[in-house]
Write a structure and sequence with these properties.
The structure is a homotetramer of 355-residue chains. Helix content of chain A is 26%, strand content 22%. Chain A has 355 residues and is of the alpha+beta class. Chain A has a single domain, classed as Chorismate synthase, AroC fold, CATH 3.60.150. The two termini of chain A are 33 Å apart. The first copy, chain A, is globular, with a radius of gyration of 21 Å. In chain A, strand 1 and strand 2 form a beta hairpin. Chains in contact: A-B, A-C, A-D, B-C, B-D, C-D. Chains C and D meet through strand 1, helix 3, helix 6, strand 11 and helix 7 of C and strand 1, helix 3, helix 6, strand 11 and helix 7 of D. Strand 11 of chain C pairs antiparallel with strand 11 of chain D. Chains A, B, C, D: It is an enzyme of class 4 (lyase).
């Protein structure tokens, strides 16, 4: 069973390799009648694209989106919506030199094991470039959610040891690390630049919030909303952990501290606290959905590392491609896209819960 | 799209409610020819069953498994393998009294929102009792894995503030909290008993390890092995976070610290460290798979809590059913089952990767 | 990928063997709030059960349905609805004698090839007994359809050379072959009894009609309504062909004869004729859905036939179990069930077509 | 649940509209390591393309295939294989004139009902042009099958009243109607040209044969090989019926005539006759798979027909686009593609049947 498709009712399938001629996505299950333009999608892609700031890779991909099908007279038709982006600035020469070596932290070795060989140029299919399709599809998911007054946004919470100390939503897109704490953002930028200078990289934590999600989304018992969200985020490159609401902190709490007590507010039932992160028994409870994911420090670093050749001989490697010294800033729109995709999928699934 | 089915090629569907007449599971996709007995499955169920020790709920469910189909002359036939357990000790009387109240931390409110009404007896479908079917199916998955020399085991790593300090695998099943650190296990038992005495409950962290997993399992880009594992664990009751390998610690590391350097060992390529937790680019690399999940403190506590009625009126609730003061000990076999189910599924999926 | 599940949103999974201890079905995706009783389901099972008349097998299965989960206070809860029937009158002795022989027309040989061995008692999983679960699930599908004023019924159109000449709907359930032509029904009964006397069997054609189906059901391009219906009927035992509307007759017509001209009737757009059988481009057009399926003559006949042993040695076989001399009469409720299951599935799927 | 994807393990998703900028397909699940070139795929597309002979539509689509991903160094990588064809000769002007009218026999009305509006140019998504993606994917399926010595071919058996009387396989691609009976082929050509002259169209019957299929393919009980084949063929445009082996003729036979007696031949178990068409109990038995499908006469005819407007007012329509007067000749490669896709899917699925 192939694994390049995500979602049940709003279903996306991505295709393409880092240095192939193009990459893309097909959405199946987008309801008919949604007004959509390439420009709206482009906006989201621009937030994820390379070369957008001094803390990202210098590969220059304009990532111009083309809508190939599924839109007629400016509206979705209900039939598959295919989108494509050309790979413009792929430089495979660096990869020719190291094609017999396994880059630490990368999928070179595991792809060889799985498929018997691999497209070694830029990581091939395992490249984060694949997420172009996710973000493009996520832009449409976000637009659908907006019609239901649901808003998804994410931000950088932590980079290395630096953890945000204050929160200002409007600050997020005002700085190049996408941190809601302006002061901390500046320190994060410096830390990233220093890491790059050191031929090294940094990890981080992204937080995602969805506001306006109605109670009732999520399918017990396996396709719980939080289980699907966990899978969605964990399927992003470099992610090593996901938590919802109070998360790992829950281990240290007692039930009387962790339980969110029910209250009535403006005639609506809600909870006093939101340790649950908006999900009870796998189903949304109407509160904000709150999730966090950790991204490991970029595996490609500009310094010599030990490794082996495909044949298992000891060797040294220096990965000279163009890389993000920290993936967090560009992972923010990716995380938003994945959460938006899960939410729209479950909104559609919820339609059949009752007669 | 209904959500009571898990897996693609080794596919399980669970059914049943906490206080219904019985609960069960249907496995579709189990290869033909596997010798299996009810006793082997029973063993795993006994590890998850209620009333097994002084730190678990006092509900006494014998959980005798019946194999209804799919086995002939002691071997699986390749056709659906249905299993069932009767609910013997369901006592719904306590739930009649609180059926109009929403228990904090539980799915009462969200099920009402999703379905319009709910089976309020013992939590109905949202009860952890549903995991009987998972553990039964997991027993078969484990047996299939054992034929490939793959072994999955889990243990309690943390309860409240108590974190294990040493590891002895044989110790795990020797104590009732399933902690590989004998000394810490004793403290954990005391802490749980104290919490129950206080009318309260404790959270914890479970670690799962899979040994012998061959390199090559996992389907890029969405059905990554770690993404499917994250979903599997997050779909268990009370779980609020999942991490693989180094997990959230990765945020604080630099690439040069986090990368697992490739080495050759006995003619086989492996890595020097295992920060990755056995997964690179979503595909197993032949190292131990290492995961952790956090369980929140049991929501049902034997003390008065604020809440509201279904109509939103303020009220008080005391949940008097029989509950585990900490779900960690019984969550150990559940976590093993889920990881085993994901692994066998991906082993089958891997068969088609190459010509 | 296992094949014992049918449907996307209203999804059924059947399990069980002909001579196992019981057989059953799990429905996942039934909306919450539908009032349902075991009696309503029993009614449909009684139409399919063995021993109901002199033209069916003499195996006496009461087929008492038990609802195991998914119904609370008389209404569906939205969670999996499991149902089970015990196998009461299984007599495996006849099968012991022929377990090394391949019965012509049966799946003995192919199951051996697929799975390496087989449950030879009564055909095991390949027995038409498996359809108990389908008919039980179909009863619920029918009830859901009835709320939308959709009615599905089927009847025997042909047995051997005898083709119905007139149509009276109320006649269908008045005779034991379920033919809407009373006179022809009598001849059909005689033909069946004669065939049994001859140690032989007869084939037939079943027609299924669905009335009240709204326009718009069916998903282009693969999950067309007619494609899903074709699969549904072809998945029934003994079916060798399916046609919709004008069917194979279309080969001989010209476009000007075959096209159904659009007209307006009572302010509603419809077509003058219904050669299409209610489906245009894979989507229902509001007309009656009309389908036919052919069932081959029962493979088990009470006379000596040539065959081979499992090792390929020449042998003779006489199949002495209890069999229907013609499967058509009991195939009528099976066909209705399958069509009802497809329709309810597509009704649910249609909910997402538009914003 | 969207319906533009076909197959479980070898999974294709088509996208695109008749007059959009391009159309395409994504294959997910193609094993790694298959050598494949665009030329091999082009060959199959050339058999399906418009304007290939005097009996097809005059729309001139070169249908040049581009492989966008999933192939590296001439071999499949195991990751999604995306392919695309530009729409070159789309002329939408004729459709502007009739966009408010419902063409009899077409999906205009049903798409409006389903989606609220439609891309009316050339039938949009409902156009047979969508099958470009199927045939391209089918070419790869055929190549995979060839490695297992499985060969799929189809031919025109009947057009109007003209039924083939002799069979010569090499004749099939020697005439423009793809009939294995040379003499009859000539008559068929004349009949089609006459129908076009009359402003009318003809229906026909296609037969598909798969040779070399091993015993054991097909998943009981729903995903039977014949059920999946029936769905595959029924999902092609204009198909109104499907039969396997003896097909509808089975209604008239007795069991003693219809049963295929088992024999041993060259140490291999097979059957004396092949009324079953190669499938027993939904599983292949090693014989030739034999199927037939009927295609209705092309709905677009060059004469005035009654119809209604979108608002339901009486009107007349003359469909002036460029159309095949009989779809059978071009449906031959489409039918082959669909059967090849089902077979490769079930070959992959069969890998997990036994330990």
């Amino acid at each position: 069973m192939p694994g390049n498709t995500f979602g049940q009712l709003f279903r996306i399938s991505t295709w393409g390799e880092s240095h192939g001629e193009s990459i893309g996505v097909v959405i199946d299950g987008c309801p008919a009648g949604l007004p959509i333009t390439a420009e709206e999608i482009q906006k989201e892609l621009d937030r994820r694209r390379t070369g957008q700031s001094k803390v990202t890779t210098t590969r220059k991909e304009p990532d111009r989106i083309r809508i190939l099908s599924g839109v007629f007279q400016g509206k979705t038709t209900g039939t598959p919506l295919a989108m494509m982006v050309e790979n413009a600035d792929a430089d495979s020469s660096k990869y020719e030199l190291i094609k017999h070596l396994y880059r630490p932290g990368h999928a070179d070795f595991t792809y060889d094991k799985k498929y018997g060989f691999r497209d070694y140029r830029g990581g091939g299919r395992s490249s984060a470039r694949e997420t172009v399709g996710r973000v493009a599809a996520g832009a449409i998911a976000k637009k659908l959610l907006a019609r239901r007054k649901i808003k998804v946004f994410a931000y950088t919470r932590q980079i290395g040891d630096l953890v945000m100390q204050s929160f200002s939503q409007k600050e997020i897109e005002n700085n190049i690390v996408r941190c809601p704490d302006k002061k901390m953002a500046e320190q994060m930028v410096q830390a990233i630049l220093q890491a790059r200078k050191d031929g090294d990289s940094l990890g981080g934590v992204i937080e995602v919030v969805a506001k306006g999600v109605p109670a009732g989304l999520g399918e017990p018992v396996f396709d719980r909303l939080d289980a699907d969200l966990a899978k969605a985020l964990m399927s992003l490159p470099a992610v090593k952990g996901v938590e919802v609401g109070i998360g790992f902190e829950a281990a240290r709490l007692r039930g009387s501290e962790c339980n969110d007590v029910f209250i009535a507010k403006n005639g609506k039932i809600t909870t006093k606290t939101n340790n649950a992160g908006g999900v009870l028994g796998g189903i949304s409870n109407g509160n904000d959905i709150v999730l966090r994911m950790v991204v490991k420090p970029t595996s490609s670093i500009n310094r010599e590392q030990d490794t082996v050749t495909q044949k298992g001989r000891k060797s040294k490697i220096r990965v000279e491609g163009r890389h993000d010294p920290c993936v967090a800033p560009r992972a923010v729109p990716m995380a938003e896209a994945m959460v938006a995709l899960v939410l729209i999928d479950h909104l559609l699934r919820q339609k059949q819960a009752q007669l």
